[in-house]
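Weekly puzzle thread! Below is a chain. First person to post its structure in token form gets bragging rights.
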Amino acid sequence: MNEPQAEMLRPLRIGDTAPDFRARTTMGDKSLSDFRGRWLIFFSHPADFTPVCTTEFVAFAKASADFDRADCALLGLSVDSLYSHLAWVRAIEELFATKIGFPIVEDPSMAVGRAYGMIDDNAVDSTAIRSTYFIDPEGLVRAITTYPHNVGRSVAEMLRLLQALQAVADGQKVAPENWHPGQELLSPPALTTNSMTGRSDWFCHASGKE
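Winning reply:
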């Protein structure tokens, strides 16, 4: 595996360029840059064959058509070996009649996990990681979420967040609490006193509907 091209001197933040890397996956060698031109959700899980991770992967697989419609690829990662990943994918298919149609990266050296801030530099294992990075078509990180190893993510919320990020990507609108496609977006806040004067349409007259 080729390690990320540049080490991050600080934790990865929203607005940063996602560090590129090339690694073996369950679908052949992949680079992060292979996904440029479309949205990508890059997510880590602590270990294969664990109960929480298995429920997440089944949910990802069942929602794959929704992510496809949003023109978003999925890319998983854990420190387990490629052979473990392949065995786990096969077990999920046999036990749950669910096919995992996205690649899973092996990261036995934890190089990718450390570059992304998923794993502390002094960590000896990956038990603390359940991180998710929402990466736009230009390769910029637009959102980051982190869960503890013993709590699963909500795939429905990940899809909602992706759709909200896409809806406001042009910078002309903002998304209110629990926004879903088809609901109104809001006008951005006023930036000067003059633009605030007499303005009461930031909520009542939203920017439009998606």
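Puzzle host: Confirmed. Bonus trivia for everyone else. The radius of gyration is 19 Å.
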